[in-house]
Design a protein that fits this description.
246 residues; alpha+beta; Arc Repressor Mutant, subunit A; 2 domains; 41% helix; DNA-binding transcription factor activity
């Protein structure tokens, strides 16, 4: 990522971003929690992409170079934390579950005046307690390093509905299906079917944020039917794509 901007202190604030707008690559000396109360947020680093709807937040450790992309009208909430406060002891970007209480704490903390008053300090303490209890979610779409995987993954990013097998794809990138399977496990930490499902869910969230119809999202992302898509989406996020829009 060229021209990385350095902001020593991670901001704590709420702001709106228009659909398609972005915050260019930057880094902070503090940790940061990034939460989209409305719309869908995509965070990209050199290690891959993380995507979060309103039921998820993204933990960004201090020093991580990252960029933000808004999908749909984005209500963005940022919580900066000093390096001495790492409630989950995380050293890499991670998607966290945001339940009703944690959501309200984030909204209240980012909207209140930024002072050191006792009420604000108590709010901060409860926010950290809720973060410690927040489950981590495997919604990371890792970026490949091997040139063969890069070519293969680029094809799926361009067309998530691609249903070709690894054997067929291997002929195009010059590797056997066995070699590609080993590369997925070693380079991306997951199997090819797991990675492709993550990719499709990633794209589905972005399409839903742009108000694409559920049936069309299922088709564009490679599910055999809308019901199959709804089932996978509900098992992953705990609600249906229709409820996700609300």
């Amino acid at each position: 990522m060229p021209e990385v901007r350095h902001s020593p202190v991670a901001p704590t604030r709420a702001q709106w971003l228009a659909p398609g707008s972005a915050i260019d690559a930057h880094r902070h000396d503090d940790h940061q929690i990034v939460y989209a109360a409305r719309g869908v947020l995509a965070v990209t680093t050199n290690a891959g992409a993380w995507v979060a709807p309103a039921t998820r937040a993204i933990w960004i450790p201090a020093g991580t170079v990252h960029a933000h992309q808004a999908h749909g009208k984005l209500e963005l909430h940022l919580v900066g934390l000093p390096t001495t406060e790492n409630p989950l002891d995380l050293d890499r970007p991670t998607v966290l579950t945001v339940g009703p209480l944690l959501r309200e704490l984030i909204l209240a903390y980012t909207r209140r005046p930024h002072d050191d008053s006792p009420p604000r300090e108590r709010l901060r303490a409860v926010l950290l307690d809720e973060l410690r209890a927040s489950p981590q979610q495997p919604l990371h779409l890792p970026a490949p390093r091997d040139p063969r995987l890069k070519a293969l993954c680029a094809a799926f990013h361009a067309n998530p509905a691609d249903n070709r097998t690894l054997a067929t794809l291997g002929k195009e990138v010059g590797a056997s299906d066995r070699t590609l399977s080993r590369l997925f496990a070693a380079d991306l930490g997951m199997s090819f079917p797991q990675w492709r499902t993550q990719l499709r869910l990633h794209h589905a969230l972005l399409l839903l944020a742009d108000e694409t119809a559920v049936t069309k999202v299922a088709h564009l992302c490679g599910w055999s039917s809308a019901s199959a898509f709804v089932d996978v989406f509900r098992r992953t996020f705990g609600h249906t794509p229709g409820a996700h829009r609300m």
